[in-house]
Amino acid sequence: AFCLSAGLGIAHHPLTVFGFPAYGLFILMVWFDKEIRNWRLETGKVRLNLQSLIASLKQVMLHNWRTLLKMVGFALLGLSVWLYFPIRSPMAPGFGPTTMNTLNGFLDHVLARGLSENLPYFSLADQSDRARVFFSLLRLQYSLPVIFLALFGLLYPFISPKVSPLHPFTRSPITLYALTFLGTYAFVISLRAQDIMAYLIGPFLLVGLFAGLGLLWLLQLVGTRMNADERGFFSSRPAIALLLILTFIFGPIWQVAQNIPDISLRDYNEGQAVIDAVANWETTQESGAVLLSDWERMTPLWYAQFVDGNWPETAVVTPKLVAAGTENPWLTDIFENLPAGPVYLTNYRPGAIAGTEFRLRPSGSFYQVVEPGDISLPPTLTPVTATSTSLSTGVADAIEIVGYELPETAVSAGDFVPLTLAMRAPAVTSDFYVPVLYVGEMRFEFTTDSHLITPNWWAGELIVERFDFALPHDLANGRYPLRLNFKNLSQNQEFPLDLLLGELVVTAQDNPVDTDQLLANFRQRVGLVGATARANDRRATAPWTPENMITASPGDTVNVTFQWESLAKAEESYTIFVHLIDAANVPYVFLDYTPLGGSSPTHLWIPKWLPGQQFIDPYRLTIPPDLPPGTYFIEVGLYEMVSGRRLHISDSAGNLTGDRYILGAIQVE
């Protein structure tokens, strides 16, 4: 049974392999203990020498060769599930690899080569930080009393001369659980991959098991202290024992009840939204198109195809998964399909058109790839005419607004509101322009990040882009007019358009999150609670002044630690960037990671960070050996993993103030 389940476990996920050393050691421990007892009974000797032990082991293996052969056979039976792949692969499956009927393609999957390439990503020098990451994740699962109870359950059998008489909870099984925990932890914590927190489910379950054992030992210990009679604590004090058990389990039950509204997916409809958008394609998009998609958005479409039997007609739209195979597979598919008809992407991916002059034009839920110079106004946009005018000269400036779309006008405080603008430059300009949106008294000055900068606009072409904005969580009920201006960043001058885009009807939150104490509020989704930097026995807390800056030398490591708080569920997976820059904003060190070194993405298929959760996120920033002496700065921020679009920072009044936070200065000597 063990070998069959082990084979099935490996076929399900290679992670189970890392528990095998613990199982092997456990079997050897039990066998060794048995051999020691037999040796003492037969010879009366206290010690068993190694040579005799090895000889005994060989004898046992030779004597039980049939059992060993059965074990191998049942393990292979469990692994036989893998045979489905080489059989199914050449049959043109709807999705998945088609090369698994080859030896190399088969081994790519069964050996998890893509996963093993990331091992070991973190070195021994990173292990203290990785332990902090693990503890941060552990605290999301268990309260401190439960964690201490788990430690008690693990250690008590080894430090107590008399352990609970309940059989078979002896030291050997606890050793098995502890070794399994350590083996899995060592693998997972050294891996850099999306959502390795999912791989920690096993260790987290073992912590819960240790906590249960800790309660068991604690009840036995309390019973002894209360002078329970020989019947035992459970028999002599059943009411007290039951009360203690109920007290222990009340905490987790209460925690589950509190978290159900946050973790419930009852109202989660992102997958259905993709299905509905494709089903209604003819009403919003051009027919005969190809929709290029990633795995995350293709999966609900496959579900609709293979479960519900719904798939769009080719004359309307053809969804297509973009698979790896070239340096930029998205661009390869764009060039292959664009001559035959319109091409759309399921989400904003500027990297897909990198190195070309294609434009990504928002179109409903998707983005259309268009040639440069397109002057057509999408039919979903409301036409307007507004031209920026210089305050100093009164002369019409370079940017015109010709259309907009505000699909949501009834919103709630804390919402991320979509806004699409259609813009035009009558002549080529070398200056940089950005829109400035006023929502009531709040001011949103957008940045050039993830937008086609105005010097790259063609004369007369229509540029259509999204400028979404987040409302403060504590915004009051009311109607908020939307007014649009433009700003010339090159001249640091704002041009009044006073273009009214309608108004938002805002519903306030009943219990808005407090953001006043945050160092930075990123898109009303993630808050930076605190940040510290440490180098050469000096520690600075952000934001530190020039007088308190830390010093470092080329080759030194600066340990930077952030404390994040989830303010609301994320719409995308965010990447955290930590950069060392100079006074001219030139970056010299890049640290761009999924939060907690890949351990805890904000979003992966579903939102992962729940409102109110806090995370400790350490980084090791190494000063380049050839970095010239001078004053440098540490900046931090977040951006969407797929689009690269940075999250804007809001101040306490809700105004947009940029897209990065400067911790402070570092003097490199």
Detailed description of the structure:
With 669 residues, the chain is an alpha+beta fold. The protein folds into five domains: 1-117, no CATH class; 121-258, no CATH class; 270-370; 382-434 and 461-507, Immunoglobulin-like; 520-668, Coagulation Factor XIII, subunit A, domain 1 (Coagulation Factor XIII, Chain A, domain 1, Distorted Sandwich), CATH 2.70.50.30. It has 17 helices and 30 strands. Strands 17, 18, 19, 21, 26, 28 and 29 form a seven-stranded antiparallel β-sheet that branches. Strand 11 (433-439) and strand 12 (442-445) form a beta hairpin. The protein is globular and about 95 Å long. The termini are far apart. Keywords: Membrane, Transmembrane, Transmembrane helix. The chain crosses the membrane at residues 15-32, 67-85, 142-159, 171-190, 196-219, 239-257.
In short:
By secondary structure, the protein is an alpha+beta fold. It has 5 domains: 1-117, no CATH class; 121-258, no CATH class; 270-370; 382-434 and 461-507, Immunoglobulin-like, CATH 2.60.40; 520-668, Distorted Sandwich (Coagulation Factor XIII, Chain A, domain 1), CATH 2.70.50.30.
